[in-house]
Design brief:
This protein is about 75% helix and about 5% strand. With about 230 residues, the chain is mostly helical. A two-stranded antiparallel ribbon has the order 1-2. The structure holds protoporphyrin IX containing FE (HEM).
């Protein structure tokens, strides 16, 4: 097994498995974040956010998630480097018949931009919640438990900065484009590679991507329009 993950097939396999894991995380993350637009008091979102940090299963999954991101990124760098070195004519541009879609030809760039977005995003929220703290995070009561006011931290960013709103809309769209190709390509690598399956998966991938792009964009848009 340890030798397999270093072969080129093994690396692609690891990219797919970590990618599929990340796709599941994104759906859960989106669902919790959408709670923000259904209750302006923030109680519903704070409850959801508290559940995510206190649930023992999620606490175990979090370090696995971090590792998944790391493997996905490192393997993508290695695969892209090897593909680039193996190209017979390096400056030759791919023609439409060689590559199916714009997203599939630009997976590395899209992934890189998502990575930059993620760095800023973790700095905005995760680092403050876990390490540095923020006056906006003062504790509030949810039911009979004291929890961080994550709603206040997130909503203040979107209410106060149109620039951050634009960045988060871009982040959602970039992630959507990245997963249109990544989704079905991951399934293809793990064996769903007959024509009928690929056709179905391409459709599911498109629906998933639109959900992600629209879903994440709606949140900052809601704050721009409503406040
Ligand atoms: C409107 C859009 C988004 C909002 C409001 C949002 C909100 C948040 C918040 C509040 C946290 C900290 C959670 C905590 O530690 O308690 C967080 C963490 C995180 N977000 Fe987002 N997020 C958004 C979009 C995204 C996107 C597009 C991605 C993927 C590229 C993403 C990936 C992550 C990751 C990996 C973490 C760290 C793991 C975790 O704490 O669950 N987020 N997000």
């Amino acid at each position: 097994m340890s030798k397999f993950v270093f072969t080129s097939v093994g690396r692609k396999f690891m990219m797919s498995i970590t990618g599929l894991f990340l796709l599941m995380f994104i759906l859960v993350h989106l669902t919790v974040n959408l709670l923000m637009i259904f209750d302006d008091t923030g109680a519903l979102y704070n409850q959801g956010a508290h559940f995510m940090v206190s649930n023992p299963v999620i606490r175990i999954v979090e370090p696995v998630l971090g590792l998944g991101f790391l493997i996905h990124i490192i393997w993508s760098l290695i695969i892209t480097w090897e593909n680039w070195r193996a190209r017979p004519v390096r400056y030759k541009k791919a023609t439409r018949s060689e590559a199916t879609s714009w997203a599939s030809r630009n997976m590395f760039i899209l992934g890189g931009l998502v990575f930059v977005f993620l760095g800023i995003h973790l700095y905005n929220f995760y680092i403050k919640i876990k390490f540095t703290g923020s006056p906006l995070l003062e504790e509030v009561m949810v039911g009979d438990t004291n929890v961080h006011n994550t709603y206040l931290l997130v909503s203040t960013l979107f209410k106060e900065s149109i620039l951050y709103c634009a960045l988060y809309i871009m982040g959602g769209i970039l992630l959507g484009l990245h997963v249109t190709h990544g989704f079905w390509s991951a399934f293809q690598t793990i064996g769903f590679n007959n024509k009928q399956w690929l056709n179905r998966l391409q459709w599911v991938a498109r629906i998933y991507a639109v959900l992600v792009a629209v879903g994440f964009s709606i949140i900052p848009l809601y704050f721009i329009i409503r406040f």
